[in-house]
């Protein structure tokens, strides 16, 4: 026990903790006792109340089951259903179970007697009453049944129901009594616990007072002695004889007082020395503080310079670069505002604190303002001026602004930009121009880098634009087979390639895998690309042709070229050229040659056959006339075929000429209809006209060719005959001509290509009809040149309708009076020089002209005609362009134009080559394209004579 007391006396903490532990233990014990007592009370209450509730539920179940048995029995008596009968015995089983269960609980004598009566009643009921009642019910003897069943008040079931209600009230009263008893018990327990707590608090107060006396008094004594000693009073310390912390503190305080007193004199002497050292340290501290401030200033300055350098290095956008430069420089040097202006035609600029109006004013005067001196001297300089009202702000006294103008020079010492910095109310220090000039040199380097970047970017963009402009797909591979770059044309060929393929890294195997699904015969294409790209086989001049099947069918010709830099191969270039049009043209031309061969040989065979018959046989006049008519018809067919081919050639070469004159569409349609009515007997050609004259500025021959071609097609593709309706009328500021037939019609899949050159509808009926596939293409070209449109509406097997639309024009037709016509009719005195290389044609034309009353001089050589032309002085010259090998018709025309006596002689060109534009340059308007009817030459000469 003594050891235990000594252990606790050595430490105030241990004493305090022991007292607190004792207090908490007492409180905990009391709380545990109260909790245990409360739990016992509640458990007893729960047990009693639960037993009562269960007995009540069992009594209620017995009452319900008994009532159900009676109700089910009565139901069976009435309805006699098997369901009611089964329910009686189910309820009896439930009743027996409830009776067995309630016997397990303690009951009063009256309750036990009642239960025995119920059990005895239902035993007798099921053994005696129920069988007899069922027998009466099944026999239908309800009168005996009513007498047999008693419903008096002494029925045990009624007693049970009354007992259930009484027992329920009894249970409620017992529960209320138990609740009141529970509250009383808990209140009593609470009072005991509160009294116990008050007792513990009194004990704790006693312990606290003892601790305060043992600890507080010695501490207050030590505090008073320490305060007296601190005030300089010499004291005698009373040592407290204790073994705890207070005793140790008292002894330490006594020892400390002795030591302080012994060293006081030493400290006084050292204090004087330390005071001197303190003054010296104070001075050094001030110096260090100033140095630290300078270091912080330099650090901030270097941070700002670093931001400037980073902005110069990381920005390649000119406007962003200018904004970053002026913002950082103004921040670094501590100026109020500034502006930097590029010395370019656009004068790009950026500013801080400068309005757009002020910047515009500076740029307008940049060639003769303050920037001019900086550009000439290439040195920064300072300017002092009075502040503007806006810069003056709220200051009443006059302020001055100092401005520093700094030129930014490039490597050739030429000013590329100028920077103007403004400081308000302060002067510019001497070091600032040098500092800003150093930053300007860094800015100059940034401008050089920006210029190099812009130049390379322009070059790159130019290269990209060039690659995207060409019509071939270009693909660049590296040595490992990766696709590095493609142009837009290649992305049109292959849908799986990215639209922006200027920079990509597509491996060769991925490319080949994707090609498998979009090209026909991909293995050959893969082998060609692999051999050329990976160097398995050197590139040669021969290319490779393949077919794209998706997304659109195309034929591509591909060739490759190796790329070298300083003699070392660094890649391969594949060029893909779309030859779909050439392929289709070659195919159509091959078909055209076959068709033309057939179309030429068939009429030629007829011409040669009938001509041979006429030469070697004596034929009747009627037979001769029939043969000549056939020869004439086949010759016209040949002429049409050749003219179509020549028209196509002129269209493709761009040499097709048009002689635009006022033309009467009404008269032209009438002429074409009459011409075709003669050639068919199974077709009814009907013209529906609104009787309004339709005048159009057009080439009459070309327009006649359009109408003739369409009407011929309507007749030709209506082999069974039928009605052909031509409608001409003015509609909504345009002339509309419709040609409708009741023939074969056109398939829907042929409509998109109907007006293509060499295209013929692939149909057996149409193949038998014949044709070159050029007619509608020529019609489309002529109508387009006349600013018109052509459309087709068709239904297979029911016919087609071709609709021509021309813009309406208000043109007055030229009227020639009979007097004027008669005055200029040709006379026998008119001399015509005919220069024609084809002897047979020349004889025919001479006979035609002589029959018309003209005097004709025939020449087959141009040189001889030139020699005699000056002497003959013909009134009109008809000349062929193809003469002897050493002379052409153009040479004859050139000599005539150089001769004064012949230069005004009217000239008519008769040639198979349609060179009307060149003829117009020589002033020749009359141009007859072979073959033509001889009567056209006579009509042309008469027209020249009428014009005078």
Molecular structure report:
The chain is an alpha+beta fold and 948 residues long. It folds into 5 domains: 6-202, Up-down Bundle (Four Helix Bundle (Hemerythrin (Met), subunit A)); 315-457, GAF domain (Beta-Lactamase, 2-Layer Sandwich), CATH 3.30.450; 470-578, 2-Layer Sandwich (Beta-Lactamase), CATH 3.30.450.20; 658-815, Heat Shock Protein 90 (2-Layer Sandwich), CATH 3.30.565.10; 821-947, Rossmann fold (3-Layer(aba) Sandwich). The chain has 27 helices and 23 strands. A 6-stranded antiparallel β-sheet has the order 7-6-11-10-9-8, with helices on both faces. A 5-stranded antiparallel β-sheet has the order 2-1-5-4-3, with helices on both faces. Strand 22 (907-911), helix 26 and strand 23 form a beta-alpha-beta unit. The radius of gyration is 64 Å and the shape is flat. The chain starts with a helix and ends with a helix.
């Amino acid at each position: 026990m003594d050891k235990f007391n000594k252990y606790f006396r050595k430490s105030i903490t241990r004493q305090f903790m022991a007292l607190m532990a004792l207090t908490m233990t007492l409180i905990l014990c009391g709380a545990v006792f109260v909790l245990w007592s409360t739990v016992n009370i509640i458990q007893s209450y729960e047990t009693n109340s639960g037993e009562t509730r269960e007995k009540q539920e069992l009594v209620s179940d017995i009452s319900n089951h008994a009532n159900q048995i009676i109700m089910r029995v009565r139901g069976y008596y009435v309805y006699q259903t098997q369901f009611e009968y089964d329910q009686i015995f189910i309820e009896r089983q439930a009743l027996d179970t409830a009776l067995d269960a309630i016997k397990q609980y303690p009951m009063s004598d009256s309750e036990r007697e009642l239960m025995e009566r119920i059990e005895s009643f239902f035993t007798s009921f099921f053994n005696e009453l129920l069988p007899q009642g069922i027998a009466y019910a099944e026999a239908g003897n309800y009168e005996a049944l009513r007498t047999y069943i008693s419903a008096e008040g002494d029925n045990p079931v009624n007693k049970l129901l009354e007992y259930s209600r009484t027992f329920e009230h009894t249970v409620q009263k017992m529960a209320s009594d138990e609740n009141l008893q529970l509250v009383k018990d808990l209140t009593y327990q609470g009072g005991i616990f509160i009294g116990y707590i008050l007792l513990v608090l009194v004990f704790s107060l006693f312990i606290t007072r003892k601790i305060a006396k043992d600890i507080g008094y010695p501490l207050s004594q030590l505090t008073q002695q320490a305060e007296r000693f601190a005030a300089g009073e010499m004291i005698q310390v009373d040592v407290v004889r204790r073994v705890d912390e207070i005793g140790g503190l008292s002894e330490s305080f006594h020892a400390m007082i002795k030591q302080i007193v012994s060293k006081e004199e030493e400290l006084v002497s050292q204090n004087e020395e330390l005071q001197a050292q303190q003054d010296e340290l104070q001075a050094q501290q001030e110096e260090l503080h100033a140095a630290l401030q300078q270091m912080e200033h330099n650090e901030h300055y270097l941070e700002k310079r670093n931001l400037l350098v980073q902005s110069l290095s990381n920005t390649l956008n000119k406007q962003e670069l200018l904004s970053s430069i002026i913002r950082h420089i103004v921040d670094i040097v501590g100026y109020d505002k500034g502006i930097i202006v590029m010395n370019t035609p656009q004068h790009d600029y950026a500013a801080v604190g400068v309005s757009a109006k002020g910047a515009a004013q500076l740029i307008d005067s940049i060639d003769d303002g303050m920037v001019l001196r900086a550009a000439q001297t290439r040195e920064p300089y300072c300017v002092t001026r009075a502040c503007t009202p806006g810069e003056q702000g709220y200051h009443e006294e006059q302020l001055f602004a100092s401005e520093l103008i700094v030129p930014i020079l490039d490597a050739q010492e030429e000013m590329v930009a100028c920077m103007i910095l403004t400081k308000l109310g302060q002067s510019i220090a001497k070091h600032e121009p040098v500092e800003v000039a150093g930053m300007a040199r860094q800015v100059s380097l940034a401008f050089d880098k920006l210029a190099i970047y812009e130049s390379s970017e322009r070059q790159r963009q130019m290269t990209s634009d060039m690659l995207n402009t060409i019509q071939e797909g270009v693909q660049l591979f590296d040595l490992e087979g990766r696709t590095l770059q493609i142009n837009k044309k290649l992305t049109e060929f292959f849908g799986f390639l990215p639209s922006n393929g200027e920079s990509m890294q597509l491996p060769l195997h991925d490319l080949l895998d994707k090609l498998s699904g979009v090209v026909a015969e991909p293995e050959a294409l893969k082998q060609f690309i692999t051999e050329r790209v990976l160097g398995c086989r050197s590139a040669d001049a021969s290319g490779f042709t393949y077919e794209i099947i998706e997304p659109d069918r195309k034929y591509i010709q591909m060739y490759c070229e190796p790329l070298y830099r300083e003699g070392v191969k660094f890649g391969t270039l594949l060029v893909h050229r779309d030859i779909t049009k050439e392929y289709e043209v070659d195919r159509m031309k091959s078909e055209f040659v076959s068709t033309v061969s057939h179309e030429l040989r068939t009429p030629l065979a007829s011409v040669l056959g009938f001509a041979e018959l006429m030469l070697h046989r004596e034929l009747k006049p009627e037979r001769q006339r029939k043969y000549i008519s056939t020869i004439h018809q086949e010759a016209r067919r040949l002429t049409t075929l050749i003219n179509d081919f020549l028209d196509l050639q002129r269209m493709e070469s761009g040499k097709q000429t048009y002689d635009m004159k006022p033309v009467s569409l009404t008269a032209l349609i009438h002429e074409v209809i009459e011409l075709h009515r003669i050639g068919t007997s199974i077709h009814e050609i009907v013209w529906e006209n609104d009787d309004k004259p339709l005048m159009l500025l057009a080439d009459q021959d070309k327009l006649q060719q359009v109408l003739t071609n369409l009407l011929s097609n309507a007749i030709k593709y209506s082999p069974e005959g039928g009605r052909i309706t031509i409608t001409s009328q003015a509609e909504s500021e345009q002339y509309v001509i419709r040609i409708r037939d009741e023939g074969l019609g056109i398939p829907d899949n042929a409509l998109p290509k109907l007006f293509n050159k060499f295209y013929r509808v692939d149909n057996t009926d149409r193949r038998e009809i014949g044709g070159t596939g050029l007619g509608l293409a020529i019609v489309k070209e002529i109508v387009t040149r006349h600013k018109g449109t052509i459309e087709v509406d068709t239904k297979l097997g029911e016919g087609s309708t071709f609709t021509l639309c021309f813009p309406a024009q208000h043109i007055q037709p030229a009227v020639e009076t009979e007097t004027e016509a008669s005055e200029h009719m040709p006379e026998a005195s008119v001399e015509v020089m005919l220069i024609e290389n084809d002897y047979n044609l020349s004889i025919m034309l001479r006979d035609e002209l002589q029959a018309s009353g003209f005097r004709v001089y025939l020449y087959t050589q141009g040189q001889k005609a030139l020699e005699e032309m000056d002497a003959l002085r013909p009134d009109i010259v008809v000349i062929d362009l193809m003469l002897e090998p050493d002379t052409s018709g153009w040479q004859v025309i050139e000599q005539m134009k150089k001769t004064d006596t012949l230069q005004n002689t009217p000239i008519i060109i008769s040639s198979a080559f349609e060179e009307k534009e060149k003829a117009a340059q020589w002033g020749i308007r009359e141009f007859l394209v072979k073959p033509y009817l001889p009567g056209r030459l006579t009509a042309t000469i008469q027209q020249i004579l009428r014009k005078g």
